[in-house]
Amino acid sequence: MAELVPRFKEEQVFIIEAFLVHSFRESGRKGVVLGLSGGIDSALVAKLCADSLGPQHVLGVAMPDGRGGKDLKDAKKFAK
Which residue among 49, 63, 64, 76 sits deepest, i.e. has the most Cβ atoms within 10 Å of its Cβ? Predict the structure, then answer.
C-alpha cells in the first residue's frame, strides 16, 4: 500500500472526529462496522473512526469487489 501525504487541515479532522464521537454516543451502540474495500475512501473512514472512537469500537469487514485483486489484499493489510 502506497504511503499518502495527508492534505487535511487539523481543524477539518477535528470537526469530523467530533461529529463521529457525538453520533456514536447518541446512538447508544457499542461499536461500528465498516466495509473495507482497500480503497482510499474506506481506509480514511476506518482511520477517522479508530482515532475518534478507539479501535476497540471499530470492526472492519473486507468487502471484495468481485475481482479478488490488490484492493482486497490492501483492505486486509490495513485492517491489521
Answer: 49
In sequence order, the β-bridge partners of residue 62 are 36
- The secondary structure of 22-52 as a DSSP string is HHHHHHT-S-EEEEE-SSHHHHHHHHHHHHH
Instruction: Encode pLDDT of 21-80 as tens digits.
Output: 999 999 999 999 998 887 888 888 999 999 999 999 999 988 766 766 676 677 667 666
User: How many whole angstroms separate alpha carbon 56 and alpha carbon 54?
Assistant: 5
CA distance 8 to 14: 10
State pTM to two decimals: 0.74
CB atoms within 10 A of CB 44: 14
Which domains, ranges and CATH numbers included, belong to the chain?
10-79 (3.40.50.620)
